[in-house]
Amino acid sequence: MFEDWEADFGRTFVLGSDPVKVKLRDDIRKAFLAGKQYFQAHPDITAVELYRHAQKLARDSGWEYGGPIAGHLIGQFPHERIAGDKVTLYVHPDNPKKMRDLDAQGQERHWIFEIHFVDRTRQIGGFYEELLTVG
Fold it and tell me: In the beta sheet, which residues pair with residue 111?
């Protein structure tokens, strides 16, 4: 938190040179970029569609998708304090809303995209999180 603003930016780092962990870290970064490209190529994408795509990216890379969400809205509030309907404010498997719909004030909404890959057998996982709707 920086005053009233929440910053969501996350990366996975590997200590040492374990090749499986290095592959996990690299696969997560590649999946984030592929997911962002997918979002940009589909102007009417819904949150559930992006969530399912994140799951597919995990499977295609040989991992399990490990998160209950694949991102969330951002703004002048910490997302943990959002009152009311949380599902429509997340890249969530039950959110059918178009991600590019405007907010109640007619403003563009901005999303964080999160990639969570895990290997439950090895008990390892990784994470990549960054702004989706800019850049």
Answer: 73
3 state SS of 130: strand
Residue 3 covered by a domain: no
DSSP 87: G
> How confident is the model over 79-88, as a mean pLDDT?
62
Token pair, residue 28, equals 């997560």
Our CA dihedral for 42, 84, 73, 96, rounded to 10 degrees, sits at -10
How far apart are alpha carbons 50 and 31 in whole angstroms? 12
This prediction's pTM = 0.88
Domain that holds residue 51: 19-131
pLDDT at 135 over 90: no
CATH of the domain at 76: 3.90.230.10
Q: At what angle do helices 19-41 and 47-61 cross, to 10 degrees?
A: 150
CB atoms within 10 A of CB 82: 15
Among the listed residues 38, 68, 67, the one whose alpha carbon sits nearest the alpha carbon of residue 53: 38
User: Is the residue at 11 inside a domain?
Assistant: no
Q: What is the count of structural domains for the chain? A: 1
Work out the angle at residue 87's Cα, subtended by the Cα atoms of residues 81 and 89, and round it to the nearest 5 degrees: 60
**Residue 99 maps to a domain:** yes
